[in-house]
Specification:
By secondary structure, the protein is an alpha/beta fold. The chain contains 15 helices and 16 strands. The chain has helices at residues 12-81, 98-108, 112-125, 130-141, 161-180, 204-216, 229-241, 270-284, 299-314, 336-342, 357-367, 382-388, 410-419, 425-441, 447-455, and strands spanning 84-85, 147-155, 184-186, 189-199, 220-224, 245-248, 263-265, 289-294, 318-319, 347-351, 372-375, 396-399, 461-463, 466-468, 481-487, 495-500. Strands 1, 2, 3, 4, 5, 6 and 7 form a seven-stranded mixed beta sheet that branches.
Length: 503
């Protein structure tokens, strides 16, 4: 119950004094609380100011970084664009001439009629120029009333000019033939083929940049390239992620077989080529112990060495243990043959990458015909014949193709008509790579559809080296062949690659 008793009352003076004390105490508390609130607000303001300052500094730093990255990216893109051409740049300067120079200027200006005339004039004076033939066809396809299909090709102009032109001859021959027939028919419409040429110099980093450029260009539906296994392996993930088909005409390294579903090749793998050479060495010419020189910096070279060593072992022979690395700082060609002979070797196999052929030829010179000489497919070059001369006489090496194997074929006849010669194995495999793309695109309008078409077990088209069909790994079902360097007049060096019967 409530207390109803009367409360004790203070005198008026005491009551006023007490109320005054309470008000003073309340005022002091308010001042203290207000001071605390002001302090808190000042602290929050200070923190926010610091955050804003920090964010501003970070934003400025980020903006500067983005500008720097953009500037570098633009510079990089500008450098790569100088390596690309549909007809506006001359990439193979060795074949430059006034007509060709005038033609690329007209092409760059969009005057495709005059560009055609000048490219044709250039070819009359320099008929053995695949770059000019591609640009001539691109000029014709660029006229407004033609629809087009565009593919890319990457070649090593600065890495190996001869190899670059061999590959380009195969691509340009295939393009020229299909465009003369009216192009590729898609959905009832004939479309002429344009080829964008790129120069990667066989440099992996440059190959990656070119691959990224091709992927970023939605008009490019497929790519022929790259030449070296180093370049192809480096670029493969970019093509795979970009869903863009890459068909290498010349890369043999085993790593390419696991590079992805968009990666194919029209040349035999290192295993096929190495086994072909190993069987000939052990079973045919009875050389049981073989010394090997390889390039430790090249996946294709190491791949070939491993496959050859395994095949020789399975055939009852052995690879001798001598140190011979074309990339080593200690490499001394004069010592190699003597060391191999002292180790009991009966033959010497040279497995250079394309840019190490000179080192291999130095070993051949030092050999002085003491050991039986063997080589890999990379040594199938004009340089080998022209520089090696008698030092490489009798050397046996595996290859994908020799003109004699398709003598009197339409490909051989057209090659002679265009280039004055039948061409090398690189020309043939590049032709087959381009033909595979062209055939696939006749029933495909997107990159994804093209991949599905080529990967289909039922896909098959007749090529120079026989039927073009691909395994799930992207490898082509194909055998290798053997050639021997012998005196001859076809190459103009006094020596030729001549086919031999491995049986």
């Amino acid at each position: 119950m409530a207390d109803l008793r009367p409360q004790k009352q203070l005198p008026p003076s005491e009551r006023e004094k007490s109320m005054s004390n309470q008000q003073n105490h309340l005022t002091s508390r308010k001042i203290i609380v207000f001071g605390i609130l002001i302090a808190i607000l000042l602290t929050i303001w200070s923190i926010n100011r610091q955050k804003e300052s920090s964010n501003l500094a970070s934003s400025k730093s980020k903006t500067l970084m983005e500008r720097w990255l953009t500037r570098n990216q633009n510079q990089e893109n500008s450098e790569i664009e100088q390596r690309l051409s549909l007809g506006e740049n001359i990439l193979i300067s060795a074949d430059n001439n006034p007509d060709k120079q005038f033609a690329v200027e007209k092409f760059a200006a969009g005057d495709f009629f005059k560009a055609q005339v000048q490219f044709a004039n250039s070819l009359k004076a320099y008929p053995n120029d695949p770059e000019a033939l591609i640009y001539l066809n691109n000029s014709l396809a660029a006229i407004d009333y033609f629809e087009t299909i565009k593919i890319g090709v990457s070649i090593p102009v600065g890495g190996s000019l001869d190899v670059a032109k061999e590959i380009l001859r195969g691509v340009s021959q295939a393009q020229n033939e299909i465009n003369k027939q009216g192009g590729i028919e898609q959905d009832g419409v004939n479309k002429l083929v344009q080829v964008q040429i790129a120069n990667d110099d066989n440099e992996p980093e440059v190959a990656q940049q070119i691959a990224a450029n091709f992927v970023a260009n939605p008009e490019i539906l497929g790519v022929v390239g790259h030449n070296s296994s180093d370049a192809s392996i480096a670029a493969a993930p970019i093509y795979q992620q970009g869903n863009l088909v890459m068909i290498s005409p010349t890369s043999v390294a085993r790593e390419l077989s696991q590079a992805g579903s968009y990666i194919f090749r029209t040349t035999p793998s290192s295993r096929v080529l190495a086994e072909t050479l190993a069987q000939y060495t052990v079973d045919n010419i009875r050389r049981q112990k073989i010394a090997v020189c390889a390039d430790s910096s090249s996946p294709a070279s190491i791949s070939f060495k491993d496959e050859f060593s395994l095949a020789v072992f399975e055939l009852g022979g052995e690879v001798s243990n001598i140190e011979c690395d074309f990339s080593s700082k200690k490499f001394n060609p004069d010592e190699i043959p003597a060391k191999a002979i002292a180790n009991g070797s009966e033959a010497l196999l040279l497995i250079p990458s394309v840019d190490k052929i000179n080192q291999a030829l130095e070993v051949s010179r030092a050999n002085q015909n003491r050991l039986t000489m063997l080589g890999n497919h990379s040594m199938y070059t004009y340089e080998t014949l022209n520089i090696g001369q008698s030092d490489v006489n009798g050397m046996v090496l595996p290859t994908a193709w020799h003109p004699n194997s398709t003598a009197h074929s339409a490909f051989n006849k057209n090659a002679i008509e265009l280039w004055g010669m039948e061409g090398s194995w690189r020309t043939a495999t590049a032709y087959d790579a381009t033909k595979a793309l062209i055939t696939g695109l006749s029933s495909s309008t997107t990159r994804q559809q093209l991949q599905q078409t080529l990967a289909n077990p039922g896909f098959a088209v007749s090529g120079v080296l026989g039927k073009i069909t691909f395994q799930p790994s992207g490898d082509r079902l194909i055998k290798g062949t053997l050639v021997k360097i012998q005196p001859g007049n076809s190459s103009g060096t006094g020596y030729d690659f001549k086919p031999i019967d491995s049986d």
